[in-house]
Each structure stands twice: as structure tokens, then as C-alpha cells.
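INTERNAL TRANSFER SHEET
From: sequence group
To: structure group
Subject: Alpha-galactosidase

Please process the attached sequence and return the structure record in the designated field. Keep the field labels unchanged so the import script can parse them.
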Amino acid sequence: MGWLSWERFRCNTDCANDPDNCISERLFQVMADLLVTEGYASVGYEYVNIDDCWLERRRDIDGKLLADHKRFPSGIKALSDYIHSRGLKFGIYEDYGNFTCAGYPGIIGYEESDALQFAEWDVDYVKLDGCYALPYEMDRGYTQFGRFLNRTGKAMVYSCSWPVYQIYAGIQPNFSAIQTHCNLWRNFDDIQDSWASVENIIDYYGNNQDLIAPNAGPGHWNDPDMVITFGKQEFGKS
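Return from structure group:
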């Protein structure tokens, strides 16, 4: 279990006007501290995961990923080290496309070097989204990136958006391959800060149990997305 930034903080990059809520190294340091000081770590919450919008708009001259230098001035390795120093694990986001969903550099053409860079940063968890990618190429692409992660020798949980994009495109996902190469995967919509969104996800999983349930097992799981609390949902329902 752990904490992921997306649903609450989205792609807020305006640190000048909203320093407490923008995607920055400070935000993730604060959340790591809170997991420890408020007792979440002691009951099993161990991951602090960055989602989209942590990158610069372009890679460096050598093709390596760059964290936004204003919002992550110490760099990703330093943030990873900080989170590990709190006894926690560190997760990061990328996309199997030319761009991430928010328009930052994706991994296409850099799959092997990005996997190595994540290992060098001591990343423990990789979420790979599927914006700006062709769904029929995902069987090859997600599989290949998973192999590159494994070849680094650094253990990393691999979270895939592979099946959901294929389902949207009317393609039957190859769940046998997904189970082999991914630790967890998304089947349905992103969670939103509303009770209707929660109900829709519950309904989808309930109505599709015959397809979904057999795919889960030790080391590989269906991912219905984040648990959200204390948002806009009605208090009695959340």
C-alpha cells in the first residue's frame, strides 16, 4: 500500500502561487514524513509514488529524462534517497507513448535507457500509462519494457495501463501475457473525486468478475485505481 499524487494534486505545476499543492520534491517529502509520523507506515503503507508532470518538457542532450529543475531542484535520486531514509519505497510515472498524458516526454524510443535510469535512481515502483500510444502495439511495448526493467537487476513493481487502453479500443487484452509481465494493471476508468465515480468502478468490477477475477494471483493483481477519502464524496459514503 502507499500514496499516489494524481487524484488530489493532478498536474498542478504552479509552485509560485500554490507551493503547498504543486507537484514538487517538497510535496513528496512532506507526504513521506506524514506516512511515518501519522502512523500509516506502521500499518503497511510503504510507497510514495509520483504521477505525471514531474518531468522537464524535453530530455537532455544524451536522451536522458530530466526532472523539472525548478520543482525538483535536488533531482530524482535525492528525492528517492529521502523517501528511503524514512523507511519507505519510491515510485515514479512514465508513459508508453511519445508523450505522457500531460504532454511530457514518453518512453518510446528510450525504453532500455529509461529502465536503466530508473534503476540508477533506486526506483521501487514504475507506473506506465498508455496515452499517445497505439493500443495494438501495447502487447509488444509493455512486454519489452518489463523485460528491460528486469534486466536492470533492480526489483521494481511494474504497474501497467495496458489492458484498459485496449479495452477502450475494442481489443481483447492478452491477460496471460499481462500476468506474466506486469504486477498490476488497470481495467477501467481513472477514479475521480466523486461518489458516482466510485460506484461506476465498483459496478464495472462487479459486472465483469467472470473476466477479471481469474487473472489475479500471487504477484499479479487487478488494479481498480486509488482509494479516495475526505474528498467531495458524501461523508457517510466515503
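Handover comment: The chain has a mean pLDDT of 92. The first strand starts at residue 2 and ends at 4.
Transfer complete.
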